[in-house]
Specification:
Elements (H helix, E strand, L loop, with lengths): L13 H51 L9 E2 L5 E2 L6 E2 L12 E7 L4 E9 L6 E9 L1
Antiparallel strand pairs: 1-2, 3-4, 4-5, 5-6
């Protein structure tokens, strides 16, 4: 009967297998880190976009309504100026909320024509507080 196995047939050694596993593991760890960083950057971009929209809505309300810079802090979702700090903490759609990320809106004025509109929030990515500030002149 014929022997179908070659006499000098060799397989991979354990060292070669371990080196291959280490290389594949390194590639997978690198891919995971890149994916994680991209996810965080997308979350930050989304938060900044939402904050910019909220600040823009405050500017629109400021253009169309009366605002008492001495006592008012921001505009509520209904477009009315409010002096209550709790009404200035909103979610991404502008409704009062305590869900993360929540945005604290404020309008400050040095006179009746120059305004600083700010949105501050705790970043969902854990990078501390972030903010968007816009200066507006009526």
């Amino acid at each position: 009967m014929l022997n179908l196995r070659a006499i000098n047939q060799q397989g991979d050694t354990i060292v070669e297998v371990l080196i291959a596993i280490a290389i594949v593991g390194s590639v997978l760890v690198g891919a995971f880190q890149i994916t994680n960083r991209n996810t965080q950057q997308m979350q930050q971009a989304q938060e900044y976009g939402q904050a910019s929209k909220l600040v823009q809505s405050q500017i629109e309300y400021l253009r169309n309504a009366s605002f008492n810079a001495g006592s008012d802090r921001c505009f509520g979702q209904d477009g009315k100026a409010t002096s209550t700090a709790a009404n200035c903490i909103v979610n991404s759609s502008g409704a009062s909320s305590t869900a993360v990320p929540n945005y604290t809106l404020s309008i400050e004025s040095s006179d009746s024509t120059n305004y600083t509109i700010k949105a501050v929030w705790d970043s969902a990515t854990g990078n501390g507080q972030a903010n968007v500030t816009t200066y507006y002149r009526l």
